[in-house]
Amino acid sequence: MYLEIKLYKFFTYPFVFSVLLYLICLQTLTFQDVFSTTNKSFESINESNLINSVKKNFINISDNNNNTSVNQDQTLNKQKIKIVAAGDFGCRPIAQNNIKQIELQKPDLFLVLGDISYEPTMDCWYTMTKALDSKIKIAIGNHEDEEEKAKGGSKELKDSLLNHYNLQNSYYSFDYGNVHFLVLDTQLEFSLDVFKPLEEEEKEYYDDNIKDDESKNPDAKYYSTTLKDLLAKYNIKAEIPPYHLLNDEVIVEDVPLQNEQYQFAVNDLEKANNNSSIDWIFVMFHKPIYSSLTSHFQEYIMREKYQPIFDKYEVDIVLQAHNHFYDRTLPLKFNPNNTSQPIVDESNNINKFVNPDGSIYSVIGLGGRSSHIFLNQPAYVVNQYNGFGFLSIEINGKELDGKYYDIGYKCKEEKLKEKDLDEGNLVIYDMSACKNSKIRDSLEIIDHYSISKTS
User: Are 412 and 431 contacting, i.e. CB atoms less than 8 angstroms apart?
Assistant: First the structure.
């Protein structure tokens, strides 16, 4: 009892009670402060690490890209990109089947390499490709131009395509992820394919009537000079291929030299080559500058004009059409000493390339219109095929994988006779009687190659 009274009196003293309460509170505050400080230390460390990590990643990106900011397509650059390419379609059942197979590939981009509908309008093409419309990029072919006026080609047809695909010009460029694409219009260039030999009576007619006609209509275009003189006029030193009766004395149209497209290409490729976010450069157009021989020539004049800039600005892939077959070259560079014999990079396997020195050229002209017979195989062409299909290219960073797929049609192959070549009979080069050979669970891969870029 005495102890209880003493304790009671102790707690009744205000001073003693206040001191005791202060000590208790002091211990509590000290613990909380320590706890709070510890948490802040962890937070500070984590935040510091996070900031350093972000800065480190940012610096790596900037260093690698030589930019001061992260490229807005950085996420897209890290994704796989699927590109499908073909030309010379038309709207027949084979082309319709090919388009359906391309749809199943679910490409990010569908590159259409010219000669699209073979009709006076594009209605059938727009209907047939409706599901792929937003993914399509086109090159203009001769059948979309007045060169084929007798077969439906026209300025209106070309304008329809430009309007439909929202293009200001028939030559243009664009980026998709880490890939740059340059699209050229071969109808704006000198083409050996339109230089036709004339019969003697036709030459006499032109010799007799040209001057009189030109005086009446100075803006008229005529086959009024020789190919030799035309090339000399513009200081073009292109070789003339020794096929199909073509030579430098053939009478040709004195067409004006178009240079705007070339300047666009030079400026565009230089910019793309200097863009560190671009790993791949593709060029696409219709008439081929490298091709196995069939009814259409290789465009030697365009080759001499454009290949040096393709080499200079490190173009990786060149996609072409016009000849109705598929072929692929080894990596090639321009040979100024012999236009017909390119410099070939033979340091790699023919199907697997690591840092190749030169551009790989392909003709993909089997969209569905018809199939052509091969007349030769240049040493630098490593694969040839004339069955309908498309080229699929998948890009994953600095790795590229290309495959040509056959969609299953078989054509009756005509046998070429030597006299047909001598007489310039080009009709026989089209293979006829094409039909679906068999139903397949999957498409057949005809050609398969890869390119790797290492630092």
Answer: yes
Closest CA to 154 of 58, 162, 283, 358: 162
Contacts of 422 (CB under 8 A, 6+ apart): none
CA distance 26 to 90: 90
Strand 409-412 and strand 430-436: the pairing is: antiparallel
Say if CB 386 and CB 366 are below 8 A apart: yes
Distance, CA of 257 to CA of 232 (rounded, Å): 12
The CATH number of domain 82-189+258-452, selected from 2.120.10.30, 3.40.50.170, 3.60.21.10, 3.40.640.10: 3.60.21.10
Note whether 325 and 263 are within 8 A (CB): no
Kind and range of the H or E element at 232?
helix 227-233
Q: What is the mean pLDDT of residues 70-76?
A: 44
Q: By the 8 A CB rule, do 90 and 367 touch? A: yes
- Separation CA 276–CA 267 (nearest Å): 16
Tokens at residue 331, please?
């990596």
Q: What is the DSSP string of 140-203?
A: --GGGSGGGGGGT--HHHHHHHHHHTT-SSSSEEEEETTEEEEE--GGGS--GGG-----HHHH
- Are the C-beta atoms of 259 and 299 separated by less than 8 Å? no
Does the pTM exceed 0.85? no
pLDDT in tens, 220-233: 444 456 777 777 77
Return all residues near 101 (Cβ < 8 A) that are at least 6 apart.
389, 390, 405, 407, 443
* Sheet arrangement for strand 444-452: 136-138, 109-112, 81-86, 389-396, 399-406, 444-452, 352-354
Q: Residue 210 pLDDT > 70, yes or no?
A: no
Chain center to CA of 127: 24
Residue ranges per structural domain of the chain: 2-65, 82-189+258-452, 193-257
